[in-house]
Amino acid sequence: MATKTLMKGNEAIVKGAIAAGCRGFFGYPITPQNEIPEYMSSLMPKAGGVFVQAESEVASINMVYGAACTGTRVMTTSSSPGISLMQEGISYIAGAELPAVIVNVQRGGPGLGNIAVGQADYFQAVKGGGHGDYKLLTLAPWSVSECYHLTALAFDLADKYRNPVMVLADAILGQMIETIEVPDKIETYIPPKPWATTGRKNRDKNIINSLWIVPQVLEELNLKLQAKYALMIEHEVRYDEYKVEDADLVLVAYGTTSRLCKTVVDMARKEGLNVGLFRPISLFPFPSIPLEGLAERGKKLLVVEMSHGQMVEDVRLSVNGKTSVGFYGRSGGMVPTPSEILNQVRDTLNGGSSCSCCCRTRSEEVSR
Amino acid sequence: MTQKVFERPRALSENTFSYCAGCLHGVVHRLIAEVIDELDLMERTVGICPVGCSVFMYDYMECDMIEASHGRAPAVATGVKRILPGSFVFAYQGDGDLAAIGTAETIHSAARGENISVVFINNGTYGMTGGQMAPTTLVGAKTTTCPEGRDPAIAGYPIKVCELLSSLDGPSYIARVAPVSAGGLAKTKAAIKKAFQKQLDGKGFSLVEVLSNCPTQWNMSPIDSLKWIEETATKHYPLGEFVDR
Ligand SMILES: Cc1ncc(C[n+]2csc(CCOP(=O)(O)OP(=O)(O)O)c2C)c(N)n1
Ligand code: SF4
Known about the structure:
The complex is a heterodimer.
Chain A: E1 2-8, H1 9-19, E2 24-27, H2 35-46, E3 50-53, H3 57-69, E4 74-78, H4 80-85, H5 87-95, E5 100-108, E6 114-117, H6 122-126, E7 137-139, H7 144-161, E8 164-170, H8 171-175, E9 177-183, E10 207-208, H9 215-235, E11 239-242, E12 249-252, H10 255-270, E13 275-280, E14 282-284, H11 288-296, E15 300-305, H12 311-319, E16 325-329, H13 338-349, H14 363-367
Parallel strand pairs in A: 2-3, 2-4, 4-5, 5-8, 7-8, 12-13, 12-15, 15-16
Antiparallel strand pairs in A: 1-9, 5-6, 7-14, 11-13
Helix pairs in contact in A: 1-2, 1-7, 3-5, 10-13, 11-12
Chain B: H1 25-38, E1 45-49, H2 57-60, E2 64-67, H3 73-83, E3 88-94, H4 95-101, H5 103-111, E4 117-122, E5 125-126, E6 132-133, H6 152-155, H7 161-166, E7 173-177, H8 182-200, E8 206-211, H9 215-218, H10 222-236, E9 240-244
Parallel strand pairs in B: 1-2, 1-3, 3-4, 4-8, 7-8
Antiparallel strand pairs in B: 5-6, 7-9
Helix pairs in contact in B: 1-8, 4-5
The structure holds thiamine diphosphate and iron/sulfur cluster (SF4).
The site of thiamine diphosphate has 17 residues of chain B, from helix 4 and strand 5.
């Protein structure tokens, strides 16, 4: 059974987390995710969990670290500048192999940037972000429904791999209201956690640590982490496709941008252009093999992002020169309009310049 | 008939300390272990060790231990204690850890009256990184980053943590001790025990500042370092109970 209702993305993140058994939330206010700590402050205690408004994002992530040590499902949420402050703590969580969920409702950057939508924290999320050789499993919702379900899934994955998981949303997803079917109950599995520091009653002492002073031992930990990441690449790739079968050109986009691109696919098809959409849902592990498959079938790719070219690098690595990969990006809270994207689509299919990333100037911008 | 009158506390492991000769870190570890034994807390204790010379404290204690990032032990302790209110949680922190990089976490966990206990080792220097100036280094004292002595015109003044935290309503117990004599050792242990008992009674944040030494970075013999604490450090950092409620 499920209940159909209207909900904001930020609220869906809260509800999905609680449904998945999250019982600890630690956070600090920052727009555009303030509804999350606000809802959490009342809903979490009702669910029998803990809510703490921390003094900073540095404190939030370290409270998450401590709370995760107990084996309880816990999370923090923030937006771009706050996520930057958390990076040392996230690296410790990865190094100590603790399960935890971090949500980034991305805004415009760099610096204080603004509170409008952005997708420029992609590199930070999927390439490490903090120091050391670690990876965050990263999930990118495109709807309020996915804000709910991917947040819930994040807790299962965090426990399964004993690894931090990031949900990479954005200001539009956080603020937008749409219909969602909220299930009465969700499938979730919380494994036993014999490693947790809960007091050593009836067992040997447990230590949670990321310090390995002997180089050989630290390298062994790194190799163990790498093996874990390889398993994620094998089992956790998630993506969605729309009208790619007969497409000559496939748009590649995630999150809010992928919604715009879906509209563009329909607009293009009305003009007789065979266009499709490929939407990565897991950003790490990145869906490289299916993208390579599209390239091998001779399809051109056009990546659209609200940044000046971040995910496009992973797309290019995936196809490894087997097809042309164009790029179109806006930033700073500017949202690419469907007609802007459609112009790029027409250009690309006509064989024109199709890259507006940092290496080339957007032709229309120059002529404006 | 022989009778055992002195033994290793159960809560202290058999591992050899990595501390320099004469360093009080190991002494304070032992006092904490004795108190944990006496209050019968080992089975429900989660200890948080800092980044600093005592980073390996998890090897020296027999209870569950967590290694925190530099300065964040009170936040980590908050996370544990909020989720497990029935556990006993202590944090062990140096002066760089607690009063420089971790100042915000210290003040806010105290202000929240977080029901945790902090043992604060004030040795006036950054022992682990090579004897640099700490937030507690006294005016005129020489360190590797103020080789001519701490000059207030350049580096300002040392922070008196107990006095600072005493202005807050959150703490239940704040005391400063100096384990440099038999009497001082007894008072240190008594203060730690009182601080731990406050947590057990649900009274909220407790902190014991231990005036400690660093013979290695102070370039002093262990005996001289104890004398220096007694004769000089205690003048600037008066001993006693600042909060007890
Ligand atoms: C974020 C970060 N900054 C700096 C360091 C380096 N560091 C390690 S220990 C330490 C100082 C420790 O001094 P203190 O807290 O006084 O403890 P002590 O070693 O004297 O016992 C510093 C600065 C670190 N590990 N992490
Ligand atoms: S450097 Fe100083 S504080 Fe560190 S172990 Fe040696 S004497 Fe103790």
